[in-house]
């Protein structure tokens, strides 16, 4: 299927979250991006007929639906039931309900994360997603291994995991690394995941320690539109990597 | 929730030993027919836990109307005939548990299924 046709088919879907939740960092993935990621994964032989795929943090289902055009089985996981319902409707609206399956589950962060600490010192430039904080030095220590990560599925249960995870800017630092860890445990072949470019050195080290190969498949800017009232700018450009991890 | 989806799910409640397969308590089940895809079901069968498929079917059977065609108790070796593949496809893809619960086989913890979506989110004290 041509990328432009895939993008065209996806552009009719409802992208917006019904009541976007600040804490969950809910931003829709564009049809343009979803089509390209999926086409890229297919070129690499990581998605296609006879294969299964999991969308971790599926939101309103853009990546889910894109994958469902090319795969036989897509499992879409999100913690927000309202987003899942939209994703389900989206899949139905383009007749992909045969291929898509929805599960409500939540990726957990470790209890030692910054979130849990009371009276953490306020730093200039932080808050409301502004300012680039380097990843917490002990994020590694708070990463959860295995089933305790909150996803009720066995290791290596699907061929490929795709994910546009929260970036860890809303009092949930480390969540992006946790999503990547969970993704790598669930996949048999490959993981495609979006992460802030600023976290690249840190994540590269982590992935190497886990024993996998990491590629920066693409660099881009996420044009995050004003979703929340407190956003002063109409859009904000965030430098983002598309990472491909080979399992 | 399809029986296919159920096959992937495992319980992660604290105190679980095996956690698989989750038991199904079905309250509402619907059949939604979809076009039979022989290649798809042939490809996916070896990747599934067939025992769990049989178990799941037994657990929802009394809520399924019309009664599905029988599927073998054990996965046949070698090539499977088309009629059996059709029956298997139907069981895996067309039976949807809309309302009910998934139950952890070790702890008895119930996970609700609402409008076809199971909620597997645990409370902090259950992890």
Please characterize this protein's 3D structure.
The complex is a heterodimer of chains A (247) and B (127). Chain A is built from 7 helices and 7 strands; from the N terminus they run H-H-E-H-E-H-E-H-E-H-E-H-E-E. With 247 residues, chain A is α/β, with parallel strands linked by helices. Chain A has a single domain (3-246), classed as Rossmann fold (3-Layer(aba) Sandwich). A 7-stranded mixed β-sheet of chain A has the order 3-2-1-4-5-7-6, sandwiched between helices. In chain A, helix 6 (175-186) links the parallel strand 4 (158-163) and strand 5. Chain A is globular. With 127 residues, chain B is of the alpha+beta class. Chain B has one domain: N-terminal domain of TfIIb, CATH 2.20.25. Helix content of chain B is 29%, strand content 20%. Chain B contains 4 helices and 4 strands, in the order αβαααβββ. Chain B has helices spanning 3-8, 38-44, 50-60, 82-94, and strands spanning 23-31, 95-103, 110-114, 117-118. In chain B, strands 1-2-3-4 form a 4-stranded antiparallel β-sheet. In chain B, strand 3 (110-114) and strand 4 (117-118) form a beta hairpin. The model of chain B has no long low-confidence stretch (mean pLDDT 95). The A-B interface holds A 49-50, 52, 72-73, 75, 79, 81, 84-85, 88, 97-98, 101-106, 108, 147-148, 150-154, 157-158 and B 1-2, 4-5, 8-12, 19-20, 32, 34-35, 37, 39-40, 43-44, 47, 93, 114-122, 127. Chain B: This is Multifunctional methyltransferase subunit TRM112-like protein. Chain B: One of its GO terms (molecular function) is protein heterodimerization activity. Chain B: Belongs to the TRM112 family. Chain B: One of its GO terms (biological process) is rRNA (guanine-N7)-methylation. Chain A: This is Methyltransferase small domain-containing protein.
